[in-house]
Every structure is written in C-alpha cells, then in structure tokens.
Design a protein that fits this description.
Arp2/3 complex 21 kDa subunit ARPC3; 2 domains; five-stranded mixed β-sheet; binds magnesium ion; alpha+beta; two-stranded antiparallel ribbon; 13 helices; rod-shaped; Heat Shock Protein 90; binds adenosine-5'-diphosphate
Amino acid sequence: MFNYTIEGLLLNVFFVAFPLIFYQFLLNKKLEEKPALRNALHYSLFGVSILLCMFFPITIQPGLQFDFRILPFIMASFYSNRTVSVALVATLVGVRFALGGEGAYLNLISSSLALLCITIAEKKYHTLTLANKMAVSAAISFFCKLVGIGCNYLFDPSYVSAHAVTFYAVQSVFMALMIYIIESIRKSFQLSEELIESEKMKVVSVISASVAHEIRNPLTTVRGFIQLLTQSQVDQEKKLQYGKLCLDELDRAQQIINDYLSLAKPHPEQSETLNVGDEIYYVSKVLTSYANLSGVEIVAEFDVDLYVTGDRSKFRQSIINIAKNGIEAMEAKGGVLTITAKRHKRYVVLRICDNGNGMTHAQISRLGSPYFSNKEKGTGLGTMVSFNIIKGMMGHINVQSELGQGTEFQIMFPSVS
Ligand code: ADP
Ligand code: MG
C-alpha cells in the first residue's frame, strides 16, 4: 500500500514545511502595519510551496501521482487572510488548467470545496484547542481531496481509489503535524510579546509609584517654608529667599512628573557639567525645613571646583533621597546630617553621614531593591531610584552602618575638569 517513491514523499514534506521556517520572521509588529506587503509575502511563500508540490508529485505507479498541494493552501487560509487564500486558489486552479487534462477539473472541485470549508470553519477555528485545530485541518484536507477523487470515480469506474484513500490518510497526518508546528511558532511569538509587555508594565508601575514618593520631598519643603512665612516675623529679604526656594521646589516637582510621564517615549536627558559644591549647597538648603521638623541639623562641607557630569535634576534627586533617609533615621532623637564632598584621585567622593538608628547587614544588602522599607509610610523606592541614577552616572556606592550608631553612604563619581 505504501509503495510511494520516498524521495517524492520527502520532497513534498519539505515543500510543505519550508514556509514555516520563514513564517516566524513574518510574525512581527512592523509587518502587521503593512498589510499589503505582508499579504504579498504570505502569498509568495505559500504559493511557491503549492507550485513545488504540484511540479514534483509523489509517483505511486506509472500514471498515478499525488501531492501535498492542499496543505500549504489550508495553512495559508487559516493563518493568513482571505485575500491571500483567494489569490492562492486562483493560482492553484489557473496553473492546473494551464497544465491541462481532466485532473484540472478535479483540482477545481477540491480546491473550491476547501476554500468553502475553511470560510465556514474560519470564525470558530481560532477559538479551538490545539488538538481540535489539528483534527479540523486534517479532516478538511482529507474530505476535500476525497470528494475530488469521488467525482473522478463517477466518470471513470475503473479508477483505483484505494490508493487515493490511503494517500489522503497519510496526508492528513502531515496536515496535523504542520498545524502543530505553526501553532507552536505562534505560541512562542505570543509569549515573547507578553514577556516584553509585562516587563514594561513592571517598570512603569514601579516608576509611577515613585513619582508619588518623589513629589513628597518638594511638597514637604514647600510646606515647611510656608509654615515659616506664616508663623514668624520674617524680614523682606528672607521672604523673597523662601519664596524663590518654594518656586524652585515646585518646578522640581513638576519636572519629576514630566520626566516620569515621558517614560514611555524617552527623550534625551540633559547631561551637563555639575558643580558638586553648588548642588550640595542646594540640597542642604532644600532639606533644611524637613530636617528642622525632626530636630536635625544639616552640615555641608565641600572642596571648591569639584565637577561631575550628569543630569542636574536627577543628581539632586539621588542625593536628596539618601539624605532624607538619613534625616528620617534620626527622627526619634535628633542629630547631625553631614554631607561632604572631596576629591580623591580621579574621583569626587561624596559622604552622607547620619547618627541615626543604623542598619543590619541584611538590611544594607537589600538597599536599592524596590519596595524594601522599614518605615510605616515608606515606599522603598527612594534608594532604588538613587542607586539607579548614580549607576547611570558611572558612580559607585558603598554603605557602612552600625545599629544604633549611624550610617555612612559613600558615593564616588568620576571627576571631570
Ligand atoms: P523608604 O525611605 O520609603 O523606606 P528607601 O528606599 O528610601 O525607602 O529606604 C529603604 C529602607 O532602607 C528604609 O526603610 C530604611 O529602613 C533603610 N535606610 C535607608 N537609609 C537609611 C539610613 N540612613 N539609616 C537607617 N536606615 C536606612
Ligand atoms: Mg526614603
């Protein structure tokens, strides 16, 4: 029964399978936006496959030949679209008529029947399980071909149809196999898409939570200054100074929101040369009101002419987050927060020291990971954001801490002249 020329069979299997090697490259977002190009590529891929099957059939005995041409057609119809499947039917029928013979009519019957079956099944098809998809496709390939052969039998009763039945049974097995492969390709594509999407959502959710957190710093500062302005007798000069600091802080808050909102379409950061002394001075001024509320004094000491490269707003933010933690660590008993900057060889070394409650080794090792917080209202995002900014500026962080004694953050940035 299975006296096929093995070369013919293998060649047909190859002709049917090779479009699947390329099919995975056609599954991408960019191509989805160009339907005409995608259709043309699908048409060429499956069209070539169909023609090759037709021109290199499997010979069973002299004069009796079969081929797998219906398989690429069914695959294209289910996994591309109507335009492609109609174009393929037209090509298939046209070429077969050009070759001549009675077979052309049988081909017309089986191909149109396949198109009809697929059109009917199409809507439900993609909701089916993998096994059912394989079964449906195999059944369509078997049924349509058999009807074609059945018509032949009506005209020519001498026709030996047993060969045809076994051949089409074998063909159905390959049909199911091809569906299995094409579905696996689509599945892995879908998974990688979902992975990218979930990764993006994770970052967006982390960042959006930190926006709320970061906005708290400027708001606290502004609140402190407004409290000062309304409570005590402040001279005109101080009023102007506080007013300006409030405006600066509100601008910073706005800048943070803008920065994070534009996360989806990143714009180039403004990298510039920063005078570390100026920035430390600014940070200490900005945090003063917050520190005052906790009975903490801020001391800033720095060498002149220390320069690093980076985005000003982000640099400030990274220092503020760390310094703010220092202040919060001393909340209970007050203390001194020291911020110093010195040159050490080719580095600018920043030290942020507090004499607050300190941390254990386990806590130090978790610093910088998201949502690690020991505070009732903490978000555990401050150090993560700071560390990311510092690493982005090619900086190194070293933390030393002792429970009950205090903490020192040492940050080294490459120095620029
Ligand atoms: P949050 O301040 O919202 O808790 P952070 O990421 O800024 O989040 O800090 C994470 C945790 O690290 C804090 O909850 C705190 O326990 C610990 N921590 C950070 N800096 C210090 C410090 N200077 N002294 C003591 N603990 C600190
Ligand atoms: Mg914090």
